[in-house]
Write a structure and sequence with these properties.
heterodimer, B: mainly alpha, two-stranded antiparallel ribbon, 9 helices, about 5% strand
Chain lengths: ~110, ~210
């Protein structure tokens, strides 16, 4: 199917903002993010989340902190920075407009 | 219960990841491996019931093929694949010149990216100066010893002349000979060592420690 590549590109592009969105209210650790993303089908190869998290950290969109856990090994928590929050808000605005535009055109096309 | 082959399976996976990630900058490769290691530890701690080899393999399968993860890392981190360095004329010149014309050999040695710093230090310091330095050292030792050797011959009315010489004792001579031989061989050993490390380094480029 010709849309396969496009959809996976779109998913890949949106993934980093989904990750930022998941951290909006509370710091999350990687496994927690993988659980949440896996349920939605946004992430199929779990290991590929780590390079993304690493880049977000290098770009200053998230900061990390190791914490002890009561039921397992220590966990690295990821938390939005102010810059990360700005990036997320900007994407949300763009995405809403983009989605509305595409939806509008698709529905017009269906009616005619 | 730990699965019978859990440690081997995990070590094997991380080794393949390190292999695939050889072209990533060291810091980013180490971070990726550490992230994966703690992911695996977390996943194992969540398994209910007895751990089996199959459950460990499932964890690794979900993580993904090391090559795929590294490709993602390359993309996300904007890393260009670096072509492996191939030793050539520079390295040959360095190895040949090091014992003969030490200063030039040392410069070439340090310019070349084909050796690790430790090997460069060994190449530079064993021995410093190469053969020219050894020659001057040998000359200096000979002069010093020569001063200590004195002979006196006494001939009395047609009697055979008796010589008595005072040189360094025999054990000292033997020790000196051994030291001299070692020093003479040392630059060749060092050059040989560098040549060997060069070849290993080429294969080792894909397998960082």
């Amino acid at each position: 199917m010709p849309t396969d590549g496009l959809v996976s590109q779109m998913r890949r592009g949106a993934l980093e903002y989904c990750v930022l969105a998941l951290m909006r209210d509370t710091p999350r650790y990687a496994f927690d993010l993988i659980d949440a993303l896996g349920k939605t089908g946004m992430l199929t190869t779990e290991g590929t989340l780590y390079p993304l998290l690493s880049r977000l950290r290098r770009d200053g969109l998230v900061k990390t902190e190791w914490r002890e856990s009561t039921d397992g090994p220590p966990r690295r928590y990821y938390e939005l920075t102010a810059e990360g929050r700005r990036a997320l808000n900007a994407f949300r605005t763009e995405w809403t407009a983009f989605r509305a535009a595409v939806d509008g055109i698709l529905q017009e096309a269906k009616k005619s | 219960m730990t699965a019978p082959h859990a440690e081997q399976l995990i070590a094997g996976y991380l080794a393949r990841l390190a292999d695939a990630g050889a072209e990533l900058p060291r810091e980013q490769r180490n971070e990726l491996i550490e992230d994966m290691r703690s992911h695996i530890a977390e996943a194992r701690s969540r398994e209910s019931g007895d751990e089996t080899d199959a459950s460990v393999l499932n964890i690794l399968d979900r993580l993904g093929e090391p090559g795929v993860v590294v490709a993602e890392a390359r993309d996300r981190l904007g890393v260009q694949a670096i072509p492996a360095y191939r030793p050539g004329i520079l390295e040959i010149a360095a190895v040949v010149l090091l014992p003969l014309i030490w200063p030039i050999g040392v410069i070439l040695l340090w310019i070349s990216p084909a050796w690790k710093t430790r090997d460069k230090l060994i190449g530079t310091l064993l021995p410093p100066g190469g053969y020219p330095a050894l020659f001057w050292l040998g000359a200096a030792v000979a002069v010093t010893n020569g001063e200590g050797v004195g002979c006196s011959g006494v001939g009395v009315n047609g009697q055979p002349i008796q010589f008595s010489c005072s040189g360094p004792p025999a054990w000292q001579m033997a020790l000196g000979t051994v030291v001299a031989i070692v020093l003479l061989i040392l630059p060749l050993v060092t050059a040989g060592y560098l040549a060997v490390r060069l070849r290993w380094g080429r294969q080792g480029a894909a397998r960082p420690a």
